[in-house]
Write a structure and sequence with these properties.
The structure is a single chain. With about 500 residues, the protein is an alpha/beta fold. The chain has 20 helices and eight strands. Helix 1 runs antiparallel to helix 8 and helix 14 crosses helix 20.
Amino acid sequence: MDESAALETTAARAVETADRDRVLWSDADREWASRAAAAIVGERASAEEFLGRRAQLVLERVGTRQPAVTRTVRGIRWRPWVGVVTVIAAFVLGLLIDRIGGGSSINLLAPPVFALVAWNLLVYVWLLVRPLVLGRGAAGPVRTLLIRVASVRASGDSNRADASTAARRTVLAALPRDWARVAAPLYTARAARVLHLAAGATALGVIAGLYLRGLAFEYRASWESTFLGAEQVQALLAVTFAPGSWITGIPVPDVAAIEAIRAPASENAAMWMHLMAATVALVVIVPRLVLALVAGLVERRRAKRVALPLDEPYYRRLVAAWVGEPARVRVIPYSYTLTPEAQAGLGAVLARAYGNAAPAIDAPVAWGDDVEQSQATDAAGRGFRDVGEIRLPLFSLTATPEEDAHGAFLTALGGGGGAAGRGAAASGTSVALVDESGFLARWGDDAQRRDERRAAWRELLEAHGSVAVFVDLGDPDLAAAEAELAAAASVHDGGAANDGRERA
């Protein structure tokens, strides 16, 4: 989707997933939005077109009831004027650096242009090594600050207390967080473009200020040093001003000429100012403009192709309902036979989280069975290779997680490490259900024991690229289970998208 449609779709998702109790947006509203969007876009539309038009309808209707939601959507859009102000302020900063050396004398060993050139050279080196340190696409602290200034703003929610206050605030808190995750690649490129332009503007301001002051004052060039002689100074200046000398054709004076302007002696600084300006232009301004152009092209492409996590249960449910095909959900229990109550609870959870899903619950894989050879798991394995299916391994919290058994099971299903594991995980083996009903029946509300067992399961599942969702299938909290399944899928899809960008 383009940037605007992606933002609206993300906002609609926040409204419909964060409002667990259907206070702001009822089930009837959801059905109306889907029907109306389907009628508008027609049968030949793509899933993205359907979701984008549906999101517009959601925001139009919910905005009449909850204006704070609309204000938040407007507030988290990128504000272009922030980039313009940043570049102008950078130019003014360079223009107002009113001391080249000190007073009307330029100390050739200590002009600010040296610091400007050195800083930009360090930045170029950092741009080369940053992918190795932070990973591709990661935003550094300066870019992160600019993104926050340009795209994060208070929602303006009122302090009035009413029945919908808690739901509204939950939505308003979820929306900026969800959009930041989706828009991160785009906003990182946009911030890079602005910062490269700002760096070039600073250098341009320094050159402009240098020449403007040179028209009104006579600058004299000299040098002094406790440790360096004329030969060392000449060599240093020859290297530093080599780019400027090359582009202007002005040679750096020889050792005798350098010795002749040693303080207190001096000479007119015009030649040195030309060398400084040309060096800054060649080392700072031109590379920064090239980098800004590259970042701008990347930004433009990403703004037209914002990737949404369409494998999330929320989007799958909407698209499946639109095309008239139920979402396919396969549950694969490991060493665990569900009671009738737990099976009914599982059905309710899946119906709430995946809408008109057609769930299939496989026969349990026995403890220690060879997963590849087990008949039940072989059927599951065939299903796991179907990328159009939602797969949910199921465990019991009463069991102690063991790498040799549960870990081997996850690895065989494609949730383990290695290239194959990552590929399978990206196709759907990302969320695992852990049923707490048997644990609660045996130990009751033993919070400490339950927290310890949960931590053990999280550790094992995270080691195999999966996210744990704990639910009491005997008496499930449907709203909480739906939210946790959506959040778990979001965590995995965000990581998978980052991995894909790094490989690209």
